[in-house]
Amino acid sequence: MTAGTRLLAVLGALALVLAGLALVALFVGSAPVSPRSVLAVLAGRAPAALEQVVVLDLRLPRILAALLAGGALAVAGVGFQGLTRNPLAEPSVLGVSSGAAFGVVIAQVFGLRAGVLDALGLTAFAFAGAFIAGLTVYGIAARAGGLPVHTLLLAGVIVGIFFSSAITVLISIVDFDRLGGVIYWLLGSLAPIPVGGLAVFAVVAAVGFWLILGQSRQLNLLALGEEGALQLGVHAERVKRRIFAGAALLTAAVVAFAGPIGFVGLIVPHALRMLLGPDHRVLVPTALLAGGVFLLAADTLARNLIAPAELSVGVITAFCGAPFFIYLLRARATRIGP
Amino acid sequence: MTALVEFGRVGFAYPVPHRTARSFAIRDLSFTVAAGEIFGVIGPNASGKTTLIRLLSRVLEPDSGDIRLEGERVRRLTRAAVATRIAVVPQSLPQGFPYTVEELVLMGRFPHAPGRFFESEGDRGIAVEAMTAMDVLELRAEPLDRLSGGERQRALLARALCQRPRLLVLDEPTSHLDLRYQAECVGLLRRLNGSSGLTIILVTHDLNLAGELCHRLLLLADGSAVREGPVESVLDEATLEAVYGCRVVVDKHPASRRPTVQVVWPGA
Amino acid sequence: MSARRRTARVPALVVGGMRDAMLTRAAALALLVLCSAGPAHAFTVTDPLGHTVTLPGPPKRIVSLVPSVTEILFAIGAQDLLVGVTDFCDHPAEASKKRSVGGMLAPSLETVVALKPDLVVVTPAGNREETFVQLERLKLPVYRVNPSSVADVLDLIARLGSLSGREKAAEQLVASLDRRVKLVADRVARLPRPRVLYVIWPEPLIVPGRGVLVSELLALAGADSVTANGGAPYPRYSLEAAVARGPEIIILASHGSRQGVMAREKWERFSALPAVRAGRLYNADGNLMHRYGPRVVDGLEQLARFIHPEAFGARPP
User: Fold this and answer.
1) Which residues in A lie closer than 8 A to residue C137 (C-beta atoms)?
2) Residue in C114, C110, C118, C106 with CA at minimum distance from that of residue C142
3) C95-140 pLDDT, tens per residue?
4) Do chains C and B touch (3 or more CB pairs under 8 A)?
5) By residue range, what is the domain housing residue B119?
6) How many CA atoms lie within 13 A of B101 on its CB side?
7) Cβ contact, residue pair A231, B103, below 8 Å
8) What is the pLDDT of residues C199-241, one digit of tens each?
9) Domains of chain C by range and CATH?
10) What's this model's pTM, rounded to 2 decimal places?
């Protein structure tokens, strides 16, 4: 079996899991809609308005948002870990997600909005914050002739800390009334996104994904070190710039539409690497699907565990992610001999 | 002799003081390497040997002067084109390199088709050939961090061969190896040079290896060429003492009759 | 006169506020009459925040995401219209028996939708903007409230009365609450006003500032709230700043269903404070005073008893 066919097989299996999970997620929820009704709505034979609203306006957009956000975060994680050759690298270490979060918190705290109560207004602030943070990180790290990876990591951490502190300051002065909403957002929450928003999200994520996928083979070669990669004809600087831009775009899009959600970008790439090996040409497309599956599962739990109240999806990813990771680490440790 | 590589008055300085505390430079360096020969680059630490490799493989751009490969300016070639002609075998792989032998060897095919996502059937065939030639085929699915030093080096050589280069550049090939693998390496390199006429540039601090294996040598000190020429003329006691700062005796190897260099240890 | 009048945020004396409330109520009723004279199927109201809300007819199924609104609906006997409440809607006890849609920050939209409401009542102070957006996207009419004064509360009761068809009960409730407020105001009118520090939350120290209900209640109860001039609605004070004002009475709010002592010992350390020397530290039931429902008047009466015990039949300290 060639590498290409093997990849297709893995992707096919993941797609099946994804479709199955999406169907399950469509079936469960606080509103009493039977699976038969769900299928009827999907087939276009709308039984009742209520069922249509629940399935098409509430559950389906939220499922799509979860799939997109999870995939985006996982791909950003793969790219960033490959770029920095650091297993602890996570999209949030880029500094971009803190910048985006800061943008949104500013908007919420000062009640800034584009007049009309439109969720897209908040996302504009998120993108603005992400853009500023990303540029700052790039500006700090870039030298004449290159983007040294360790400086990039440090710059990302510093910018992230700066914006996180700024958020803390804002929280400390925010109106008591708004505090709950701000903190809730900061835990990360997936809500149904309107079609227009989903389209924007999908397009931005697609660009980021394309940027990273296109450099997957080069990412493999980067493991030889930048010098080694250069000597094999890789344009190391171009690869780094594209990966950074791609990861930043993906992260910004997720934070803009779903708030800062942690763990996905750390856990999913690692788990995939342990199961499928270190070839980025396999990891990047797989991460897109696996990340979606992971976050969809987490979000389905989040909205059904203590129904009708809802947990933040970030809480679930943190809770489930850590033990799963520990298990994988231990399993791997026993497999590899001296 | 047809010059494969030509350095013409090359100058280079690292933009900021490099890890060693002084700003390092290569000054007005000129030498040629003929097609089909084994050319050694020797000299003390920080004499510019590694910088030379970087300049040749286009990791660095010279500040002045010309580097030509088969008559063409290296500057004019794309990185990938350079990599299809020059294969650099590094001293070691970065810590924690996760790929298997086969994946590493296949990386050597990248410069031939950088736009491809997956390697072609042809690429895989070439990789198998290279692994067979270097006797690592049965290790193809092993991750590199599980191999011995010698096996790892053979894998790196296989990757270099996969590039189908005109020129092989080895950076300290034997410095980490057990004697057995050092001997193996010499044999391999001789075979490659003899059977396929592969030109080899060997950068090493091991003067005896250079003396044994190379046809011609370049002795560097402080970024400048001290002497270039046949092995016997470069491995000359007075020259070596001036460059290395200690007393040496140049002798003949009992078995191969090639020059050997022995340090005169103080205090005996 | 416009029915969209926003009540002024400056804590006004009761009498002026009452007039506003009555005017607004009259205007709302007038609007209702005018609207009923129009097309029979359109029911348009304007919520206290100025948004126009259109329903097919008077609401029959209301989801309340605001605990104080739940209380009001029960108080005016409109609870049969209530089909969904939040987990925090715990008063009166029967409210807990209603179907819950989750928390205030993250109610389950599905549950709300499944209840088929024709009106959802929300507040920007407690619910999230995102929730309103989602509800409107689902074509559910959203009625926003945000009372910040006694007058606002009475106005809200009146509006909910006309929304639910319980105008009579609402009128009676407003009248009775009005009377009680006036009674308190009259009794303290000529009494000296002691300096009072009201502690909403001890750590960080959060106090009522300008334009919030508790500040108005304190003023009505005949106190001089030492923090009422702060620019923000709920400013955070340092302990020093609060103590420097030399309060003669300290009132500690309790929250939730437990009437626990909120950091009382902390304040008792400051033996030099007039309030501590006189032993005038009291626990107030936050549920009365922080919810903008009919029980604010109970809260007012509680405060009055703490501040002017002689005037309200309680033992002097």
Assistant:
1) 57, 192, 194
2) C118
3) 889 999 988 888 999 899 999 999 999 998 888 888 888 898 888 9
4) no
5) 94-164
6) 25
7) no
8) 888 777 888 888 888 899 999 999 999 888 877 888 888 888 8
9) 14-173 (3.40.50.1980), 192-312 (3.40.50.1980)
10) 0.83
